[in-house]
User: Fold this.
Amino acid sequence: MNRVLLSFVCLFACSAWATADISVSNLFTDHMVVQQGKPVVIWGKAARDELVKVSMAGNSAKATADAGGKWVVNLPALKANSGPHTIKIQGTNTLTISDVLVGEVWVCSGQSNMAWPVASANDPLLEALTARYPRMRLISIPQVGTQEAQDNFEGKWELVTPATVTQFSAVGYFFGRQLHQTLDVPVGLIDNAWGGSACEAWIPRAVLKANGHNELLAHWDKLAVDYDAEAIEAKFTKAVAAWKVSAQKAKAEGKPAPAYPRRPRNPLVGQHRPANLYQGVLNPIIGYGIQGAIWYQGEANSTRAKQYQDLFPLMIDTWRKAWGQGDFSFYWVSLADYKDEISEPAAADWAELREAQTLTMSKLANTGEAIITDLGEAHDIHPRNKQDVAKRLARWALAKNYGYDQLVYRSPIYKSHEVDGNRVIITFDHVGGGLDTHDVRGVLGFTVAGADQKFYHAEAKIEGRDKVIVWSSEVDEPVAVRYAWANNPICNLQNRSHLPATPFRTDTWKGITEGVLIR
Assistant:
């Protein structure tokens, strides 16, 4: 390119930049909900050094676009149920955002069980027929897996109607509906879940590196170097050609056609690569005013459950620091019962993952988990009963965030134990109205072991409000007790509010996932 042409291009580009229209993130559209009681943070882009004025509900603020054209303003906090409001953004052009409500905003994140839509949950037609909540608003973030930080996305806020609710997160919607009906305030839900996602995909590379997850990063860095997209595509094309020949032959012989070859997915832009989802589907919403997040994930990390003990709290802590809104509430769903039931006690990676989830509550404030070992389906990793899952999450929010102190919100959890001869007395915390059993009167789900670390099914009985006595004729000198320690545990201990007891173990013996660092 000659110098004259280059100068013309640069002049044109600079001129276009200087007169660029003001824009905002797609988080800021008609029908949005802003979080009550917190500053209203709004951001967007404009020409460098352009002065931007934003006004809402009689308040206004100004900002100057930085060298990259980015601008951010903070407006004063508002009370719920005020409005609807209009946001006006002025600069070289004027933007108007209408029907803005003030209420409660929650992020709905995780993997497929959070993404699972209302249309595939229990009673989808009945749920859709009643989905008329004009003060509930929904927005979904498209699935973009990338190492480059995204600052926007394709999407917009929508009112809850029978048409809009069916493809939205079932757990998210049912959770938000419970809050809306209880609190009588507007509710905004942001869904950015991605099925099959790994925890490390939700954490920036720099954070993973700083916390010693170098082998995980090295594995993916090598894959990025070795991955040959052209060769893989050529192999797929060859497979399709072979399929056509086989299909024609099958048709001539009157036989069913073989299955069409499955197109390979590029793992480098998927939901497993470290940092991909943090940059692609989380970064665009970081900073938006929220009350908290609900999370349903863990299946993808089950074979690395010991590692999850570090990854999961690290992820939560990283999100909170990036958001800059303090230790906002973070509630998750513990893994459901899944896979075949087995007759004898055995090691289980899903049990170890549940343990990692539970341990996170003791590491981070304002966290909590919903136990659903009674709501799973052995041969379906996506149990359809999302209504009860959401209610258990909502109990946490209503009790901890909204002052419903009388509500039993937490499952019974192991507190301590003592050995008395061949019996072990387990004391539980958070028993609500007292311990109880589901379905049958006998207590199911306990195992006990001696020093040889061999576990046997145990007999158990409830003693008083908060204790269970456990024993086995096979173990004269018990050393350890476990409860619901299986992928699909047969267990029935609960409190009288029907919240199942939290799986636990009293031992710290090496598990089957210890030392497993790479997917």
